[in-house]
Design goal:
The complex is a heterodimer. Helix content of chain A is 25%, strand content 16%. Chain A is built from 10 helices and 10 strands. Chain A has a 6-stranded mixed beta sheet, sandwiched between helices. In chain A, strands 3-4-2-5 form a 4-stranded antiparallel beta sheet, sandwiched between helices. The longest helix of chain A is centred in the middle third of the chain and has 18 residues. Chain A is elongated, with a radius of gyration of 27 Å. Chain B is of the alpha/beta class. Chain B contains 7 helices and 5 strands. Chain B has a 5-stranded mixed beta sheet with strand order 2-1-3-4-5. The longest helix of chain B is centred in the N-terminal third of the chain and has 27 residues. The radius of gyration of chain B is 17 Å and the shape is globular. Chain B starts with a helix and ends in a 16-residue tail after the last helix. Classes of the chains: A alpha+beta, B alpha/beta.
């Protein structure tokens, strides 16, 4: 059966029908347009209506008629009520006669919708760029996307250490098709003996031996104790984003915390896969581009930051040979010239097995991720369509595109 | 009663002053100036400041910084998950700016008791401005979870002018780390 990539829009499909809001507008002399728009943008910026054009131009009986939006309507029948004083002053100065108009509430998602909107009041329309894939993926891109999702699924699989499926995240530069960083849930602790034995595994798929703390030799032959059988009936209860409050359950492997804990955290309620991957991407950035963009003043704090003591939990799941191979295939050598230095994760994609929770979804906004791909929805706390829809929160300073990857037999993969 | 309220408000301002001190340190380090302190039984047990530029990790907000230092401390003295959850449920956080959607979710996951914040965050505030995560009911969100914790209480506007003044001085000097903005930066609230 074929895999399928579905775009998860910023708005529910049902809300794409014309939702309109009322504004107060006035016709103006064309020569006043520049002055008035400048003043109005200061007095009453249209914060949540950036897609709406401030000026409407119509030709009526051969004459150009300009109208400008003064402000949002305050919903009262006496529409001058509640207007800021500056605006009232402006209306008096230029002898404007305000009237109520209706404008589209949300940016248009399609050309057809945009044409419909402009019948109310002109708006601007930005067709989704083909780079984002909202308008569909090429065969080559689809294949690459599916392959990276397979890498994420490998990381999420129950393995000899975890024993149960967790969420996993892979951050990818889609231009070079390189894995930038990856991570899986670290909400629960591992048995302390295993933490020690696998602490040599670096965060980066490559050069793990050069990682701070990578001093102990690999011990791939470590025998793993038989794991406690799953006593919980809930499926995937170790997936952090699905069960954000599950961290208070004691770990079946490790009822007592280790007496001495070398790494900073044996467990951490907030170390969900996406946050771990973001941290690893940031660590990669600091390692590859050690000179901070700002000032030398930072060098001391940067040095401290890179001390092994300060690197939070260094453990990573031991990968099966199959995983290693998949990851190795996905990772190539990094180019380290300053021109390739990223600003956070601008332009990068992230592949997550489960839809991220609200915390993780907002973290991905902060880190400027370009596209999110996930396989399973998260009915408990999913923030990309299931419970919230952060990609549609207009006030945020960054917006990513969201896709779900479907495969008929995907459940069997985990 | 009025006297007690005055006392509480005075001590809250004292905690916020400490959070502002953290924000000032962030500003000196060319970070967006936001700081916080976590308080248990009237004592500051952790402080944090924004370190997003230094770490190149945009999730390293003041709240996350303080939370990490507490988790490190509590695990070092051997507390387990139950005990840590118990501890968090008796802690309040005082932060100079309304926690963002990520931090508000994090504080809710940890089960913190109360959040006091300075200025609101009309771009990505998670305590009422954009989403109201503190009012969520975890019972509905995480079915079958034995947890009976509720959302946290939230009080905004504590010494907001000072918090805004700090943010303003940061944006006036310009964020050296940010890409060129498409639109002029506006100070929130």
């Amino acid at each position: 059966m074929d895999w399928e990539i579905i775009h998860i829009p910023a708005k529910l499909p049902s809300s794409t029908e014309q939702a309109a809001v009322e504004v107060i507008a006035a016709t103006i002399e064309p020569k006043l347009a520049n002055t008035l728009v400048r003043k109005l943008n200061q007095i009453c910026p249209l914060e949540n209506l950036r897609h709406v054009k401030r000026i409407r131009k119509r030709i009526i009986e051969g004459q150009v008629e300009l109208a400008v939006i003064l402000c949002l309507s305050f919903g009262s029948s006496e529409h001058m009520e509640g207007m800021p004083n500056d605006l009232l002053q402006l209306i008096n100065t230029y002898q404007l006669s305000p009237f109520i108009a209706r404008v589209a509430e949300c940016p248009a998602l399609s050309k057809e919708e945009w044409e419909e909107q402009c019948k109310l009041w002109p708006t601007s329309y930005h067709p989704p760029s083909s780079l984002d894939g909202v308008g569909g993926f090429s065969e080559e891109d689809s294949q690459s996307i599916i392959n990276f999702m397979k890498v994420a699924i490998q990381l999420a699989k129950p393995n000899i250490l975890g024993g149960e499926a967790v969420n996993a995240a892979v951050i990818v530069d889609p231009m070079s098709k390189q894995v930038i960083a990856y991570g899986s849930d670290q909400t629960f602790s591992l048995p302390s003996t295993i933490i020690e034995s696998c602490s040599h595994i670096g965060k980066e798929p490559t050069n793990s031996s050069s990682q701070p703390g990578g001093n102990s030799p690999p011990n791939n032959g470590y025998l793993v104790p038989k794991l406690t059988p799953n006593k919980h009936k809930q499926p995937y209860h170790r997936v952090s984003c699905l069960h954000p409050w599950g961290w208070t359950e004691l770990n079946p492997y490790d009822p007592k915390p280790p007496e001495k804990c070398d790494s900073d955290y044996a467990w951490h309620p907030l170390r969900h896969a996406a946050l771990v991957a973001i941290e690893n991407a940031a660590a990669r950035d600091r390692t590859l581009f050690p000179n901070p963009a700002s000032s030398i003043k930072h060098s001391t704090s940067m040095d401290n930051l890179l001390q092994p003591d300060d690197i939070p939990s260094k453990r990573l799941k031991i990968n099966t040979p199959e995983n290693e191979k998949l990851i190795e295939e996905a990772v190539k050598n990094f180019s380290t010239s300053e021109t390739t230095r990223p600003y956070l994760c601008t332009g990068f994609d992230i592949f997550l097995v489960w839809e991220p929770c609200t915390m993780c979804a907002m973290a991905l906004v902060h880190q400027r991720i370009r596209r999110i791909f996930y396989a399973f929805p998260n009915p408990n706390d999913g923030a990309l369509g299931s419970v919230h829809r952060l990609q549609g929160e207009k006030s945020l300073n960054h917006h990513y595109s969201v896709f779900r990857i479907l495969a008929p037999s995907l459940e069997e993969h985990i | 009663m009025a006297f007690e309220e005055t006392l509480i408000s005075d001590s809250n301002n004292a905690f916020m002053e400490l959070a502002l001190e953290q924000a000032r340190i962030a500003l000196e380090n060319l970070e967006v100036p936001v700081g916080c302190v976590i308080v248990e039984d009237g004592t500051v047990i952790a402080s944090g400041r924004n370190r997003t530029t230094e770490t190149r990790n945009a999730t390293r907000h003041a709240e996350m910084d303080a939370i990490d230092s507490l988790l490190r401390k509590w695990q070092k003295i051997g507390l387990d998950q139950f005990q840590v959850a118990e501890k968090f449920s008796k802690c309040d956080i005082h932060v100079t700016c309304e926690p963002c959607i990520m931090c508000a979710s994090a504080l809710f996951i940890l089960g913190i008791r109360k959040v006091y914040y300075g200025c609101g965050n009309d771009k990505f505030g998670g305590c009422g401005s954009i989403l109201s995560l503190h009012e969520k009911d975890p019972e509905n969100l995480s079915r079958g979870n034995p947890s009976n914790r509720k959302g946290f209480k939230c009080t905004g506007g504590v010494m907001a002018e000072e918090a805004i003044a700090l943010l303003r001085s940061f944006y006036e000097q310009g964020n050296p780390n940010a890409p060129k903005p498409h639109r002029p930066v506006r100070i929130t609230q």
